[in-house]
Write a structure and sequence with these properties.
The complex is a heterodimer of chains A (about 290) and B (about 775). Chain A is mainly β. Chain A is built from two helices and 17 strands. Chain B is about 5% helix and about 60% strand. The chains are: A mainly beta (about 290), B mainly beta (about 775). Chains A and B meet through α1, β1, β2, β3 and β13 of A and β26, β41, β42, β43 and β46 of B.
Chain lengths: ~290, ~775
């Protein structure tokens, strides 16, 4: 009985001393009130813009409190002002314009407080991806789809995104990349991501810039039927969109104590504040064997 | 005239015969060589001093216990003094004809007092090299440490220029370098992972150790392939005269060891084993608590074996073997269903060495070695007593190496070292095997190996020019070899020592290094999930150079010594995880995309140490002022940021007081400036863009972080106390140790986070909070030997 009491006291004493306490030696320079501009141009969608502000780390208001709904936003196309955004009902502003391929855009937002934010992006001219072959293979009693894709890459840095889904209502929304993803013979190392949370295959053209490039993608269905084909989502984006996806993928793990990731701030290419302006040209094809 | 002629002739007749003899005697030299041994155990003593007072010349035994000293033989005999820390001074009169001389020293009677009675070559002001500190076995065990678990790494962390990582961790950070930039050698064989229990304890069992030396700069040319330090750990050879057994029952681990002669005076063996016993308890408790359905636990263990054989008076063979592991395992079962999970990580090392004294001037050491580090996870499940699912993950690195080292005594005060070596590396970054018996599926990810080679040649010349001036000129040519590619690195190593007077010297050194292997680590402090990767085209070897100047002074009676050093180090081609990269992705072959490259590091500082080596009170005060940064193009907006373990001020005070021959009190106090930390400073509303994108993206609040490592934690300080009481009963000697870690219960910061609520009271109290790990921890341990 005595030993148990002593053990209990010891454990409590130990736990109360291995403790959590508030510190006083740090005064954070809170990053509050910095304006934000965000716009991701997509084909087929009116150009959409978000404006807002940062909050201090110790501010705990509603998200609504940090959205700016009274900014004046102008769209420039190839250097000429062509449109003024109107406020939607969903915290976004909208231009009437749809993004046009191969066009350089500049978005400028004037905030009521006088701040001016701006960002540039060049909308991709085309999505030079073709599926040239599809084969359904058998592996461990279920289907693995091999898609051969051909890319006629234009000069300049380009970033490709791929997602595969079986063409059935209940199919899983993922692209499982073959573990021994074949690199073209003689190619240099290229950037290749398989974003964990979204299961997007992202590929940069560093090793084949301006060249024709053929590669096989493998989609492991894990039992989902692919006899009716697969839905192949393809996209080409600029570096800002690519890096932004990269940040979102990392941010997914920031609160995970076992994560190996260091904290980073969202990717930005906006002058005058935070945020990014980028472009995505996407297409969806149904590929049948 | 005739008389004068005959007087001259007579002079030559009488004295002429002596003239050639006199000239010959003026040039007569003797070369003494041999080994220095412990008289009781026949253990070779490394860095023992051999000194000839008449000529003022001296030397030390090398890393294999061998010495060679060329002296002028003015008379028919020479007087030699031999000494070593913890041993009685031995004075010998040796006939001038002697060439081979093995010296046996008697251990001193004191508990752990450091005794130096000879003004010899090991005194720091007399050594050509700088930035080196050596500790022997007794010094390693004297310093108080957590849970009475002596650990050489914990002692090294109290020396100037050498810092620990986070609290309780065994990693060392030397002069602004990172954890992976240290070369850990166990009997000349590299170990890639030196931690047990997450870094709480190192893999070096102090009972198995003879000596530890650390080089913080001014690396001898025989060392390479790391940028920041070399930790040279020598295992004990074993007692060649009598069998001894020793053990420890501590709060963290239990140890047992034995050593003794297989053939008296010829062949010895040393065996030691260590284990953490708590998993036995946790398995039993969990088994009982779950009524037999589950059990689990964590343990670490290691084994050291060394056999040393004196083949002839000139040849010594030794074989070393080390195996160590950390293991976590759990099992659950219910009826015919069962699950088992096991994770293990650790080192396996083996080495064969042949030391030969060819002549009095030539000595060589040939080493063939194997080392492997691996991390292994395995999960299996049984359904209805049939194996249903089997998943395993494996990553590791394996080396096979051969090194040849030669030493030549070119003359009095002149030594030449030559050598070459080659290492074959096999990297296995991450192999995942998945088998589902039920669905008959088998998958393998990343089951590939990367191979590379590492070759070097070196030459080094140590020269004593005058009584005041000593130099060491070394050159190492390293070649890191990949298929179709060579990374050749010329690495000069230079040091100069100039004696201002008999007790004081000034020194300067310069060294260049290349490191062909990289450690992918997020914590930076050495975790089992860290991965060693080879350099490739897009991730070339890292390089560094370091320059240092300093001064050293030893008091005339040898009691006190002081040193002051300033250094500057520049590092190139460093790597760092990219934002968004994770070790999980290394099952994919293209690991290079995970890292930012072309990083640059800067480190500079001042180190001061005052050491008392004799008397009832011994110990040291060490102070370091240091500054270390990193810079990568794509991190922190391209701006330089403080290195993760950049501590501006570090002060260590260590003392060992011999109250009586049986009772010893020791203390260690450390003060360190706070570590840098990155904290969130704001929040941002951000659209969550996805792909394929089809709807307006949802909005979410994410945190905005400060510049990397912009803030500083609170300073860290801690006092550890220890009391050792020795009792001898018949043939068994007991050592009771009572120690207190963090004696005044300082709540040192371990981790910072921002919170709206106080996590303890759950009341609204926005602020920055710290987590502290270790409060005051008393401990008791018992060691025995017979």
């Amino acid at each position: 009985m005595l030993l148990r009491r002593l053990a209990f006291v010891f454990i409590i004493a130990f736990l109360s001393n291995a403790c959590i306490r508030k510190v006083t030696n740090i005064h954070l320079d809170e990053d509050a009130g910095v304006p934000i501009l965000f716009s991701a141009l997509r084909n087929g969608d009116s150009i959409r813009v978000f404006t807002g502000y940062t909050a201090g780390i110790f501010e705990y208001g509603n998200m609504d409190d940090y959205v700016e709904r009274n900014a004046s936003i102008v769209l420039f196309r190839n250097g000429t002002a062509v449109d003024t955004a109107v406020s939607g009902h969903d915290d976004y502003y909208y231009f009437h314009s749809l993004p046009q391929p191969g066009t350089e855009y500049h978005i400028e937002a004037r905030f009521p407080g006088g701040q001016v934010l701006s960002g540039n992006t060049t909308f991709p001219a085309s999505l030079p991806v073709q599926v040239t072959d599809m084969e359904v293979l058998q592996s461990n009693n279920h289907d693995v789809v091999r898609l051969r894709i051909h890319i006629d890459d234009p000069p300049g840095p380009d970033y490709y995104l791929f997602v595969v889904q079986p063409n059935v209502d209940y199919g899983s929304y993922s692209l499982m990349l073959s573990p021994d993803f074949p690199q073209p013979p003689g190619s240099k190392t290229f950037d290749l991501y398989n974003y964990g949370s979204e299961e997007i295959l992202a590929l940069s053209d560093r090793a084949f810039d301006g060249q024709r490039f053929d590669v096989d993608l493998y989609y492991d269905s894990y039992g989902d039927p692919v006899a009716q084909g697969v839905i192949f989502f393809q996209g080409i984006c600029d570096v800002n969109y690519y890096e932004y996806l990269n940040y979102l993928n990392a941010e997914y793990y920031f609160d995970d104590p076992f994560s190996s990731m260091e904290h980073e701030n969202p990717h930005g290419n906006v002058e005058g504040g935070y945020g990014f302006v980028g472009s995505l040209l996407q297409r969806t094809d149904t590929i049948v064997p | 005239m005739k008389i004068r002629f005959f007087r001259i002739l007579l002079f030559f007749l009488v004295f002429g015969a002596y003239i050639p003899g006199i000239r010959a005697q003026q040039h007569k030299k003797i070369t003494l060589s041999g080994y220095v041994y412990d008289a009781k155990t026949r253990e070779r003593l490394l860095d023992a001093e051999i000194y000839a007072p008449a000529s003022g010349l001296g030397t030390t035994t090398n890393r294999y216990g061998f010495y060679s000293l060329t002296l002028p033989a003015v008379t028919d005999s020479v007087e030699i003094w031999a000494s070593f820390t913890g041993y009685d001074l031995r004075k010998l009169k040796v006939p001038a004809k002697t060439s081979h001389l093995d010296i046996y020293l008697q251990p001193g009677e004191t508990l752990s007092e450091v005794v130096i009675n000879a003004r010899g070559a090991t005194h720091q002001e007399r050594r050509a090299e700088m930035s080196k500190i050596s500790l022997n076995a007794s010094e390693l065990q004297a310093v108080p440490v957590i849970l009475s678990e002596p650990d050489p790494i914990k002692v090294l962390q109290k020396l100037p220029g050498i810092q620990p990582g986070n609290e309780g961790m065994s990693g060392i950070f030397v002069r602004g370098g990172s954890y992976d930039q240290n070369l850990y050698l166990l009997d000349d064989v590299p170990l890639y992972y030196i931690n047990h229990l997450g870094g709480f304890v190192s893999t070096f069992n102090p009972d198995a150790i003879n000596k530890v030396s650390i080089y913080k700069g001014d690396f001898p040319a025989r060392f390479g392939n790391r940028l920041s330090s070399v930790l040279d750990v020598r295992m004990r050879d074993g007692n060649k005269r009598h069998w001894k057994t020793y053990g420890t029952i501590g709060m963290l681990s239990w140890k047992i060891g034995t050593e003794g002669p297989l053939v008296r005076d010829r062949t010895s063996i040393s065996l030691s084993a260590r284990r953490m016993p708590y998993d036995l308890l946790s398995r039993a408790i969990s088994y009982l608590a779950s009524q037999g359905e589950s059990s689990g636990g964590y343990t670490f263990y290691d084994f050291n074996v060394k056999i040393n054989h004196k083949l002839t008076d000139r040849d010594q063979l030794s074989a070393s073997w080390y195996y160590g592991d950390d293991a976590v395992s759990f099992s659950f079962h219910s009826g015919g269903d069962k699950e088992k999970m096991r994770t293990g990580w650790g080192n396996h090392m083996a080495a064969l060495r042949w030391d030969r004294q060819w002549t009095g001037k030539w000595f060589s050491s040939q080493i063939l070695s194997y080392t492997r580090y691996r991390l292994m996870n395995r999960y299996r499940s049984w359904y209805d007593n049939h194996l249903d699912f089997d998943w395993s993950y494996y990553s590791g690195i394996r080396d096979l190496a051969f090194k040849s080292n030669w030493q030549y005594i070119a003359g009095p005060g002149s030594k030449i070292y030559l050598g070459a070596g080659i290492t074959h590396h096999t990297f296995r970054p991450g192999a995942l095997d998945l088998s589902s018996i039920d669905t008959d599926e088998t998958h393998q990810w990343g089951n590939y190996r990367i191979r590379s080679m590492d070759g070097f040649v070196y030459g080094e010349w140590k020269k004593t020019w005058t009584r005041r001036l000593k130099t060491r000129f070394g050159f190492r040519l390293s070649d890191y070899i990949l298929p179709g590619r060579h990374y050749i690195s010329p690495e000069p190593r230079i040091s100069v020592n100039y004696m201002l007077n008999d007790n004081t010297s000034v020194k300067a050194s310069y060294a260049r290094m290349q490191q062909g292997v990289h450690l992918l680590t997020s914590s930076g402090a050495g975790m089992p999930i860290d991965l060693w990767m080879p350099s490739i085209d897009s991730v070339p070897p890292s390089r560094a150079w370091i320059a240092a100047i300093g001064a050293a002074h030893t008091q005339a009676d040898g009691r006190w010594e002081m040193s002051l050093e300033m250094y500057y180090k520049r590092m190139h081609d460093l790597i760092h995880y990219k934002p968004g990269a994770s070790y999980i992705n290394t099952a994919i072959s293209d690991w290079a995309r995970l890292v930012e490259t072309q990083g640059v590091g800067d480190a500079y500082g001042i180190e001061w140490m005052l050491r008392k080596r004799t008397g009832r009170l011994t110990g040291w005060i060490a102070y370091t002022w240091a500054h270390s940064t990193r810079q990568f193009t794509n991190l922190n907006r391209g701006q330089a940021f403080p290195f993760r373990y950049d501590r501006r001020h570090v002060l260590d005070i260590v003392g060992v007081y011999r109250i009586s021959p049986k009772l010893r009190f020791s203390f260690a106090w450390n003060f360190s400036s706070g570590l840098p930390v990155t904290l969130p400073v704001g929040q941002m509303v951000l659209p969550q863009e996805i792909f394929p994108a089809h709807d307006p993206p949802a909005l979410e609040m994410v945190q905005v972080y400060s510049d990397r490592n912009r803030y500083r934690m609170e300073p860290y300080h801690r006092l550890d106390l220890s009391l050792d009481y020795r009792v001898k009963k018949t043939k068994v000697e007991y050592d009771w140790n009572l120690s207190v870690y963090n004696a005044y219960n300082r709540h040192n910061p371990f981790f910072y986070f921002v919170s709206e609520y106080n996590p303890v009271t759950d009341r609204e109290d926005p602020g920055v909070y710290k987590i502290s790990l270790f409060p005051i921890i008393p401990s008791i341990g018992l060691s025995f030997k017979f």
